[in-house]
Design brief:
Helix content of chain A: 25-40%
Oligomer: homodimer
Number of domains of chain A: 2
Distance between the termini of chain A: 50 Å
Number of helices of chain A: 16
Largest sheet of chain A: 8 strands, parallel, barrel
CATH topology of the largest domain in chain A: TIM Barrel
Radius of gyration of chain A: 20 Å
CATH class of the largest domain in chain A: Alpha Beta
Largest interface: A-B, 37 and 37 residues
Chain lengths: ~400, ~400
């Protein structure tokens, strides 16, 4: 049996949107799906039981972080990542490429690759930030792989396609990603092409290195905001015997750029395999990307916003610490069915945030994940009902009309 | 109907230990009971639903902290503390005395009262610590009350018996405490007597100020480690029309001192009313105090230890961050029935602590509260079975034999 099967349940007549079902060893994922991020083998502040209650279908964990701490070998000896973190549902690990390249300067070509230079993926949050007063961490790419400095202790490490697959096989997620070299909007055409070619060679090396039959491999399409490169990369990946596609790297400098990149790329990706847009998670982006044929998303935005007291509502984002909520007896959003809104007022949540109480992060995270997961679930239903465009219009009109 | 009724279910023939039931407007509390501390209207990292699952019977919140933030008037306008924090079970608030006096110097008599000077209550944790480099905060006591500086913003506030009762009435807990002046082991006999006399006058002012019939008032016995003062204070409180007693202030310099103070004090406290030992929570102390007739405890130790990765087991406390647990696949304590031990290994919990993940604090807090609550529940059962001494011996022999 294949590690992954993908069934298209319904394809929209009026757009590239589709609803499907992914089956992997640890369960099924109804797509479009939002994958919650558990960088260090935990979705910050939540237990696996909380994730189940929220309707989370699949969790994304981080090869870079977990290989440095606690170490992939240790996780393997303890029975693999599912057992280690107590999550028995579908899991995906990224390849470490994004985190390694966001570490520091790529010395050999003098182009900065510091954190924050990958706007499209910045919200993905894997990228470690240099501590204040520290020198920027360094990553040096060559055709074989990347040598980089750990953000934890400054020790030197090496990541190659083979090592990335080795780590991901030890972690044992249902879906693993090929090791890639993402580029930023500051990279020129020539460098983006070089990185693209490396990414393609590395994808084939990942395919060759992979031995576990119970894991599905996704290849990552690169090419920045350059149409011919994106198309070349999409055609390259579509021709590979991989179980799915991810779209990574620079998605340009605006939402229009991102839409264009999706419109160039997605039609070239074989329809029978799932498509994952890396690191994108704003509500408006999710809906636009679903309409352009994306099946899977991951993003730290909902959980990171939550920890800063920024909460999603259908009328835009709300910042709980604002004084206006000091005595507000209502829930974050009236009508919301999450366990936080069922039990706690804005005034209480604001108090928890102002007092820097640990419970604040958890309650806010529950609300934000509930919001995003519901949005994607409703988008899926709208696809099935053939009215995604109307759903999107209605949602965005309200969502973008006002910031609470 | 009285705000509090106390039924003695069983009194030990061989010691002062007793098992009882307290009934207050928001429910019943089987004693001896450990009251979990929710200083800022939240037990750190846990929801009220978690507390129910843990079998928490009663929560202690903090007058000092809540009056400064978010303010008692605000809590009252939002329906009172139960509604505000989403806990519909029994609640107790302390009077603010301990926190106010632990703020800084009592200028008028030149004796330091900084945090850390009340060893018996240090683990109670209410006392704010001056930030590094900050000048010590100040509190000035007079016969009418205390003027003190907020640890939050340096603003000046005044707390008197009447104001403490006013705040506690606005918060609306089932049980409130009289405003007192605790003393430290560094205070001499004369000052301890002065403070005691103030505490007694203030208790009568609290009684006079109290207007809510649905709240029970406990008086606080002071007197430091001086036998005649403790006895005088116990007799004074026993003669007052209050619903219960708390024992506060300095409990001497050793466990032997604490035991002696309990042995002087408890027999003088009317048997028909519950006795609360303020700020004590180490397992060995709980059992010794139960045997000496204490019914109620509160302490931040279990939750504070948890946040530092220090976990209770029947073989002593275990520090999860120790390297020895790096690959340990077992639970914190084999046989433990808490939800953390049911699902997570020491290796995973250690990883969460080392990675400073939010979930670590929550999972460890659940285990530690489960441990302490179970201990006190089992002690209660042992009282009912007339074998508390044997239970205590057996527990302590194992508990004190080894640090894991």
């Amino acid at each position: 049996m294949a590690a992954l099967s993908f069934t298209l349940t319904h394809t929209s007549a009026r757009s590239a949107a589709r609803a499907g079902v992914i089956q992997v060893p640890h369960g099924r994922v109804e797509t479009p799906a939002f994958m919650v991020v558990g960088t260090q083998a935990t979705v910050k502040s939540l237990t696996p039981a909380d994730l189940r209650e929220l309707g989370v279908q699949i969790v994304l964990a981080n090869t870079y972080h977990l290989s440095l701490r606690p170490g992939a070998e240790l996780v393997a000896r303890l029975g693999g990542l599912h057992h280690f973190m107590g999550w028995d549902g579908p899991l995906i690990t990224d390849s470490g490429g994004y985190q390694v390249f966001s570490l520091g300067f790529a010395l050999e070509h003098g182009v900065g690759k510091q954190v924050g230079m990958f706007p499209a993926e910045a919200a993905r949050g894997g990228g470690p930030r240099p501590a204040q007063g520290q020198k920027p961490k360094l990553a040096r790419v060559d055709d074989d792989g990347v040598t980089f400095t750990s953000h934890l202790d400054g020790s030197t490490h090496r990541l190659t396609p083979e090592r990335s697959i080795d780590i991901q096989q030890q972690l044992g997620a249902d879906i693993i990603l090929a090791f890639d070299e993402p580029t930023s909007p500051l990279h020129d055409y020539d460098y983006t092409r070089q990185a693209l070619e490396r990414t393609h060679r590395w994808a084939d090396r990942c395919l060759a290195a992979k031995t576990r039959a119970d894991q599905a491999l996704f290849g990552i399409v690169q090419g920045g905001a350059f149409r011919d490169l994106r198309e070349e990369s999409a055609r390259f990946m579509a021709a590979r015997p991989i179980e799915g596609f991810a779209i990574g790297g620079s998605l340009g400098k605006s939402k229009q750029d991102m839409h264009a990149i999706l419109e160039w790329t997605v039609p070239l990706l074989a329809e029978d395999r799932p498509r994952h847009l890396l690191g994108i998670g704003e509500p408006e982006d999710l809906l636009e990307a679903v309409e352009r044929g994306i099946d899977l998303f991951d993003c730290v935005a909902p959980t990171r916003y939550a920890r800063h007291g920024v909460l999603y509502t259908h009328r835009g984002k709300l910042t709980l610490t604002n004084a206006v909520f000091r005595e507000d007896p209502g829930p974050i959003e009236p009508g919301c069915t999450c366990s936080t809104c069922a039990r706690f007022s804005r005034a209480y949540l604001r108090h928890l945030f102002v007092a820097e109480e640990l419970l604040s992060y958890r309650l806010a995270t529950i609300h934000n994940l509930h919001f995003i997961l519901s949005l994607v679930r409703q988008a899926r239903q709208a696809i099935l009902d053939d009215n995604l465009a109307a759903y999107r219009e209605q949602f965005l009109q309200q969502y973008l009309s006002a910031e609470c």
